[in-house]
Amino acid sequence: MCVALVRGTAVQDHVALAEIELCGELMIAASAAHGERLSADRIDEVLKVADEKRSRGRGDHTG
Question: What pTM does this model have?
Fold first, then answer.
């Protein structure tokens, strides 16, 4: 867990933690890959890009 002290208060940077988690997922996928590089489709799968695109396509238009 990444915690920074700011004026005596512990503050978590949730965006940074999420990015670190995604990088870890990519490293795990890359180490398990049979080729030299991950395909763009595999990267999207690991990062769950398709899931996000699908949820946006369900009429979730906010302006």
Answer: 0.58
